[in-house]
Design goal:
Shape: elongated
Largest sheet: 6 strands, antiparallel
Distance between the termini: 51 Å
Structural class: alpha+beta
Number of helices: 7
Number of strands: 10
Helix content: 40-55%
Strand content: 15-25%
Length: 371
Amino acid sequence: MTLKRKSLRFWLVSGTAFALLFMAIGLVANHFTIQSRIGHFADRFQLLSVLRKEALEQYFETLRAEITFWSLDDDLLNRQAELLGAQEAFRKAGGDDSARVDYEFAMSAIQARLHVLASLFVAKRGYYDFFLITPEGDVIYTVEKESDYQTNLLSGPWRDTGLAGVYRRALESAGENRVVFSDFEAYGPSEGAPAMFMARAMVGPEGRVLGVLAMQLPTNRIRDIMQFTAGMGESGETYLVGEDLLMRSDSRFREESTILQVKVDTESVRRALSGESGTLFTPDYRGVPVLSAFSDLTVDDFRWAVMAEIDRDEVLRTISGNRNQIAGVMLFLYAITLWTLWYIREGDWATGDTLSGPADTDHTDIGDTGI
């Protein structure tokens, strides 16, 4: 075999072997890089889910503290007692026209003193409405004066609403000093808009149950918590889903409100509502494949799924950039390896050419001369 053919065979075998070697190394590196990047996204969005959950828990703790403060406020308890007294006096007077005039005048005067403080509190703290309810279920004061004002929550038109539900539960737990919440539901007096309520029993100094203080919560506070998008990329979002699989917050990708309007029946949502947490790839409510991180939040006696998701395509785009980098590095190392091999081989040839001539055996041993 000629030297030229031997050299060609050497480079074919060496080039192929090193190409296969670096391809294998590249595939392994690419696999671990993909898993690492997916793990990075999964950890980040799981953390976002947990952070949203903690922010909501803090928000609800603030709500509990505020309604507890007001339900124990001496001035508010006195106003409630005065309203109950005026109502009782009207009943004892037999409800004639004269008594009604006196009753309405007394109620207006008490409410006027109350309204200055209550309306200021609602405006400053961002609540939607503030209710005082008698032990018998009569709504005797609200800031907004919607159609629920002066109705009865046990027998009136709103007896099946979230407000009536928290009123009953707060009254039942009067001895436990408990704050109760309703889940979101459409509320007729507020033009059918989604509404959430909390309530606490009002107990006087002598242990007398004076009624219930209730507040209608705003939707924008929860929306602001869930729509914070820093660090979420182009397609990341966080949202809430209730036990009926309907959204409890607004989608980042819809202009109109999605609260109680969009159903999210995905594996990750169902797992969250069963008390699990984790991450997985799944189609979301838009039918778009996403990396979905999920956990759950329990508020009073109901549970929400807390979702943090990013489109799978965005994750893969980030990973593909890393794949190109790995391919470039492997190609560079392959070229350096072949060059090194060529350099060493050329050096060996050069050395071999210098030393490969026939050995000089025609020499004289000085010891044989006899000198």
